[in-house]
Specification:
The chain is of the alpha+beta class. The chain contains eleven helices and five strands, in the order H-H-H-H-H-H-H-H-H-E-H-E-E-H-E-E. Strands 1-2-3-5-4 form a five-stranded mixed sheet. The protein is rod-shaped.
Length: about 375
């Protein structure tokens, strides 16, 4: 409710300024005739109207300039005292201006306004024959109370502004973190797509070439190669659909929730790699987090893909997973061309492999072996599944 009132007041500033001085103006209008009939005074009814307007109008006219408004009202009141004119109800505008200064300005200006008001109170009472210490004390308490109320309102306003600023900053940081998370997710999906496409398409190309060569001499082998192409293509399409579906803002009702591949699928990966390969496992397989299992799976997949693409004809590979030490060791070697293999100018597999391993505080080394062949060696801390 208070938020709506604040928004409405910002939209109708002039009306709000008039409403703020309306109660004081109404009191002055009601008491104008009785005060004009009292004496001693140097003002008639018209003089009272002019003085009241000079004291009240600055409150509404310079609502956003409280120092100017207070200074104007104080000068008018000082001129009234010099002229020997008795106080009128409109002199209460000094207190309203004091509260506005304490509410909107810094503490030093609020303190200066309080001292000026206190001096004016003393000067107004000093000219009265019936003035007493009790009257001055009461006036001082009244002035200080209004001043303290303005200071409290100022503190409250600054506190609310700091809360609003903090909320806006938190909202901006939340949006920025969401954008960063989305960018990181898209980078991860890009790596996944690269691994899926590079591996499966490489397998399909090799199998298609083999089927072409064996079509006349060995129809059964060609038929087997074609079946492998079909199986690999379906698996690649299924995995690509699952990953691309993550990029959609609105999930379809039939979204596939198939889990990411892990250590349990390594045997199928090695057997379906398109080249003679063996899997060796040392130690007891540990229960690793899904993300780390996916990292191991992608490392092996990328290493077999590189062996298939660059190892040359007749290349063979060995995949070794070692759980015996404090670290999980993944080693993939082949007996292909090694350093003699041509470099791929647009390959991102090794870079993505290093990024994956780096997420878990591990390291990866790649390079040709002595006597021929190529090696991929990755070491990851043995994290346990939650």
């Amino acid at each position: 409710m208070f938020g709506r009132v604040r928004v409405w007041s910002r939209r109708h500033e002039k009306l709000v300024g008039a409403l703020r001085v309306a109660p004081l103006a109404a009191v002055c209008a009601i008491l104008l005739v009785p005060y004009a009939a009292m004496g001693p005074t140097y003002l008639d009814l018209a003089g009272h109207v002019g003085l009241s307007c000079a004291l009240i109008v600055p409150l509404a006219l310079w609502r956003h300039r409280p120092l100017l408004s207070f200074a104007t009202i104080a000068l008018v009141s000082f001129g009234q005292w010099l002229a020997g004119v008795d106080p009128v109800p409109a002199n209460l505008a000094v207190l309203v201006a004091l509260w506005t200064v304490a509410h909107q300005c810094s503490f030093r200006w609020a303190l200066a306004a309080c001292l000026v008001t206190e001096l004016g109170t003393f000067m107004a009472l000093e000219g009265l024959d019936s003035a007493t210490i009790g009257m001055f004390t009461t006036g001082t308490i009244f002035v200080v109370t209004i001043w303290l109320a303005g200071l409290y309102a100022n503190t409250r306003r600054r506190y609310l502004e700091s809360l609003e600023e903090r909320a806006e900053r938190a909202e901006r940081e939340r949006d920025q973190q969401a954008r960063m998370a989305a960018a990181a997710e898209r980078a991860r999906i890009a790596r996944e797509l690269h691994d899926v496409v590079a591996h499966n398409v490489s397998v399909m190309v090799v199998q298609a070439d083999g089927a072409g060569f064996a079509m006349d001499s060995d129809p059964e082998q060609a038929r087997t190669a074609v079946k492998t192409i079909s199986k690999t293509g379906r698996a690649a399409l299924a995995e690509m659909r699952r990953m691309v579906g993550i990029l959609r803002e609105n999930e379809a009702a039939g979204t596939d929730y198939t889990p990411q591949p892990g250590l349990g699928q390594l045997e199928d990966l090695v057997q379906g790699s398109g080249l003679p390969a063996r899997l060796r496992v040392g130690g007891v397989p540990a229960e690793l987090p899904e993300g780390q299992q996916l990292t191991v799976y992608r490392i092996v997949q990328e290493a077999l893909t590189n062996a298939l693409k660059h190892g040359g004809p007749g290349v063979r590979a060995v995949v070794e997973i070692d759980y015996t030490g404090p670290e999980l060791v993944v080693r993939v070697t082949d007996d292909g061309r090694g350093a003699a293999a041509p470099k791929s100018p647009d390959g991102h597999g090794l870079i993505g492999m290093r990024e994956r391993v780096g997420l878990y505080g591990g390291d990866v080394r790649t390079g040709p072996l002595r006597g021929g062949g190529f090696e991929v060696l990755a070491r990851l801390p043995m994290a346990r599944a939650a």
